[in-house]
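Fig. S4 source data, part A: sequence.
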Amino acid sequence: MDDWIKRVLTRKIRRKGTRGNKHVIVAEPNEKLVYVVKFALGMTICLVAVEIAHLAILRTWNSEVFAAITGLSGTVMGIFVGSKS
């Protein structure tokens, strides 16, 4: 598993079987979820670059870009936290 996003979203369920045997069930995430998380992370990085360029060139803060960054990063964090429960 080379993909770190897929590794983070993979859920491992440990169950105690008969006679004390331990079973580990690995539930891999849906490919669509992995692609959505990659897209959201990529867009967050692009928006951060846009905000830095806006600060460097115009020397002002763009609140709309910052709101988009905040929304996307909150969505990504929600996906990571929600996948482990």
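Fig. S4 source data, part B ends here. The two ends are 21 Å apart (CA to CA).
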